Amino acid sequence: MSFEIDYLALAPEFVIVGTFLAVFVLDMLLPRGKKYWIATTAIAGTALAAIPLVALAVEGGSRSMFDGSFVVDEFALVLKGLFIVGAYLVFLMSHHYIESDRYYQGEYYLLLLASVLGSMVMSSSRDLIILFIGLELTTAPLFLLAGWKKGDAKSNEASLKFFILGVLSTAILLYGMSFLYGLTGEVTFEGLAAATAGRGGEPAIVMAILFVIVGFAFKISAVPFHFWAPDTYEGAPTPVTAYLSVNSKAAGFVGMLLVLYLALPDASQVWAPALWILAALSMTVGNLSALKQTNIVRLLAYSSIAQAGFMLVPFAAASVAGVDLREAFAATVIYLVIYAVMNLGAFAVVIAGARKTRTGELGGWAGLGAVDSRLGLMVAVFFFSLAGIPPLAGWFAKFAMFRSVMIAGGIATVALAVVAAINAVIALFYYAKVIKTVWMDDRADGFDTSLGAEPAGSLRLALALSLALTVAIGIFPAIAIFVGDASRVIAAGG
Amino acid sequence: MEWFDNWGLPLIVFLPVAGALFLGFIPKANEDALKRAALAVAVLAFALSLVLIGQFDFAGGAYNTYQFEVNQTWIGAINANFHVGVDGISLPLLVLSTFITVLAIIYSWNHWDEPKNPKGFLILMLILATGMNGTFVALDLVLFFIFFEVVLLPMYFMIGIWGDRTPRKIPGFAKEVETRLYAAIKFFLFTLFGSAFMLLGFLALYFKSGAVGDLGRTFDIVELTRLGASGLFTGTFTFWVFGAMFLGFAVKVPMWPLHTWLPDAHTAAPTVGSVLLAAILLKLGAYGFIRIAIPILPGEAANWAPAIAILAVIGIIYGSLACLAQTDMKRLIAFSSVGHMGFVMLGIATLTDVGLNAAIIGMVAHGLITGLLFFLAGSMHHRYHTRDMARLGGNMKLMPLMGGILAFTAMASLGLPGLAGFWGEFMSLVGAYNPLAGLSLGVFRTSMVLGAVGTVLTAGYMLYMLQQVNLGEPGVEWEGHELHDVDRFELAAWVPIIVLIVAIGFFPKIIFHATTDSVTSLIDTVFKGDVTAALTTLRGG
Q: Nearest-CA neighbor of A235 among A351, A289, A350, A157?
């Protein structure tokens, strides 16, 4: 074993750890009235972490440590970038939200930073142990954060449900991993790939794979393992929900991508059909349930279940014999990145809208567009982008997804594409319902937005950033393709 | 004019959306500046399209060649490019689009449906213009798809915000829904449903267009047309691809039985929205058939042609009969579109040069005539506050000029020889008598006879509308009402259309001059004279 440490490769993680420590110290030193400096530190620290990341990207190449268990390559960098940008936007959303409602600020940022660190470690992991540690570090702080609104029964419920099901899923996942280790004696992906080659049909391996898939399916809230999501999303503080639906979900996807494509590529005949079912169910159930939601955060919760279904579609294409796994891999990563941008935008706009209208119920948003056309415009942009309407970013996510399926061919996969196409239409209905309420419904009686607050400066920045990205990627999808290319490289190596 | 070769089309496409951005910075209160800026942008785009006509080489209609082509890398990794160009088929439609946009803005000058907000409406109109112009010039499937979809957003908002507020009982809903809300989402869902499948079809073509990696594959329409004619796309695969594209285009046309969004959307839309919807948006689907489905998959086009012809004829008869049952003037005009687009599709289904020419002139004529009819219906609703034909009687006595124009347009719509509407109907029937050799004569000649019955029915409902609206004595309820006749903005918007209707009626060559070469070379090359050649291609022989 070699324990050479490449400090540049670890620099982004070090910056996050440094920020973590700084927040910790500041929280003890600062008087109550000055706590907002903590948020500023966290925001600045996350932004700072992007610098070594860019430096690494510019330098290029792949850096490997600890006998290949920890690798910093283009794929890892892209995902770390995603996690950092996601966290940055969530911090911007939290700044005012957490401060104005008098929640504990120090601990809030501390826990979120720990979670970010976990997901960053995870994107570099190339063995089951580091992957598991990263994943748990990502999730565990969120159990607490979901219940941050102490006095709110819903928030408590959110936390408890999330905790119980989260722990259950962890146990199942770990059980599956232990099977894999027991059967092959390997923990590294490379070793696993070699050891499972040609053994995909063995019952024990099949069982291990199914356990792993079920474990991850909880994390990404795929149907039928999604029951915790709507309640948790609704009860948790909205910025935490945004984090859950983007960063934490992305972490689940990263884990699944790594394990399935890198460690078990030869068993794709086993996992691809399982994911076919998960994809079809998630899309259909998520969308149909979203149709009747009246609470906007709950609506986004079901929407994110359905979106997870769309992201799973390319996995299913891997069952076609002789298919280029890289295409499917890249399509999911592209979808993930675009989804992150637009979904964070949607949550930012929901926070701003809820402040303005002082309600999270859709009915209270009627006529918002006429009162505040800029906010209304953002609602239209982000929700239509989620629906996949060009020229907003979401279209390219769906396009890449459809493309990966169509170039794989095969009757089952094309059938899934048809299911996805029909689901895209169903999804439009409820996304458009939000836009309809904002722009077309008349203002309800007693609805006085003049009492509501304007979005704070940091929230505006979050909105502006995600808006710019959503429109730019929509018109020049090459930006997102770069991400896909970066990830294609690693799938080739695996 | 070398700059024009490179910049002409991109400018025509993107000027409107740039104008929309610019309008975003003008304060809402400054209505005059908003209207002037929007008009200036639209006029500029129209002027550029006139320059395009001036520079267009009318002798250069060879198969699969385009003029003013621009081809720039856009999404390099999947080989999707910003490829635009025009030929004789797209030129008339592009000019129609820029032309109607100008008139729509002029008409809007003092006609704002509730809740007014000229700024929002003008911005939407300009975004819509970019989508429409872009669809007619796109030569790349991805680009085409984007523009095809871009028109949805503005139209959705136009119908949903400025549309008809009458509550309506919709089966399946507990509460009454405002017509505009129902119509807007129905329009959106139907079109998206079609285009989602269309996209799958495009991707399947892309997949089949080359085997090695992404750079060997292409979304380029010119390239795919070449590959299609050379017999690359074969087997049951093409059947499904054509079917997928058929769904996308047929919803947009709309063809029976996918037309049900149309009467609702047209009736609920604000006047200008209905005009743009009828005049341009309906053309996108039929244009898709001519530009993409037929040239790329000629063999399948031949296979599907009888089915398309049958659906088209059902559309003609159904649309006409539905018209006869209407009491709402605007809804009647909306249903008449189903019938007229039926003729266009019948023309396309014949797969002959006569039929395709008929389809294109039919589209232009329908754009002008039905556009004008919707303007009229809107203006009359503006004055009478009702569209109920039973209450509108005697319009001729109250507003002679308005009544006169309505009578003229109705005549044009029923296909009176000497006016623009005649050529599309007449020639598509001629085409149906003599379809591409090898297509079932029985089906097409029956279609022709039924289509001819349709023309009679068309005359029937148009005259019924005139009789209801124009003739008779004005109802007592209008006594003492100040009903002013056509105003100058209306005249400014309508006279150019009237002039064109007459001009095309007498000199159809205005259109054919551009289209004939392109159409003939297309038909001759891909079908080589009869359907067996096309089917041989299809079977990979």
A: A157
Q: Is A390 on the interface with B (CB under 8 A)?
A: yes
How many CA atoms are closer than 13 Å to the CA of A91, on its beta-carbon side?
A: 27
Distance CA B201, CA B215 (A): 19
Instruction: Write out the two tokens for B63.
Output: 């198969």
User: What integer best gives the mean pLDDT of chain A?
Assistant: 87
pLDDT, tens only, A305-324:
999 999 999 888 877 766 77
Binned at pLDDT 50, 70 and 90, residue B164 comes out as: confident
- Quick check: helix, strand or coil at residue A453? coil
**Residue labelled with tokens 């349709």:** B454
- Mean pLDDT on B343-371: 92
Yes or no, beta carbons of B203 and A439 under 8 Å apart:
no
Q: Does B258 touch chain A (CB under 8 A)?
A: no
Buried/exposed code over B306-336 (b: 16+ C-beta within 10 A; e: otherwise): bebbbbbbbbbbbbbebbeebebbbbbbbbb
Query: Would you say B505 and B412 are in contact if contact means Cβ atoms under 8 Å apart?
Result: yes
In the prediction, which pLDDT does A450 show? 61
In chain B, which residue's Cα lies nearest the Cα of A480? B75
Radius of gyration of chain B (CA): 22
Write out pLDDT tens, residues B87-112: 889 999 999 999 999 999 999 888 78
Contact assignment for A418 to B76 by CB distance below 8 Å: no
On chain A, the residues whose CB falls within 8 A of the CB of B156 are: 432
Listed in sequence order, the residues at least 6 apart from B30 whose beta carbon sits closer than 8 Å to its beta carbon are none
> Within 13 Å of residue B269, how many CA atoms lie on the same side as its CB?
33
How far, in Å, CA of B248 to CA of A4, rounded? 59
The region of weakest confidence among A43-52, B171-180, B430-439 is B171-180
- In this predicted model, what pLDDT tens digit does every residue of B203-224 receive, in sequence order? 988 888 876 555 578 888 988 8
Predicted structure pTM score = 0.91
Which residue on chain A is closest to B189 by alpha carbon? Answer: A425
- The DSSP annotation for B36-75 comes to HHHHHHHHHHHHHHHHHHHH--TT---TT--EEEEEEEEE
Which residues are CB-contacts of B36 (< 8 A; sequence separation ≥ 6)? none
Residue pair B359/B444 in contact (Cβ under 8 Å)? The answer is: no
pLDDT digits (tens, 9 = 90+) for A73-89: 888 888 899 999 999 99
Q: Chain B closest CA to A424's CA: distance in Å?
A: 8
What is the rounded distance in angstroms from the CA atom of residue A258 to the CA atom of residue A490? 10
Give the 3-state secondary structure of B319-384. Answer: HHHHHHCCCEHHHHHHHHHHHHHHHHHHHHHCCCHHHHHHHHHHHHHHHHHHHHHHHHHHHHHHHH
The DSSP bridge partners found for residue B220 are: B140
Could you report the per-residue pLDDT of B381-418, keeping only the tens digit for each?
888 888 888 888 788 888 888 889 999 999 999 888 88
| CA A48 centroid distance within chain | 21
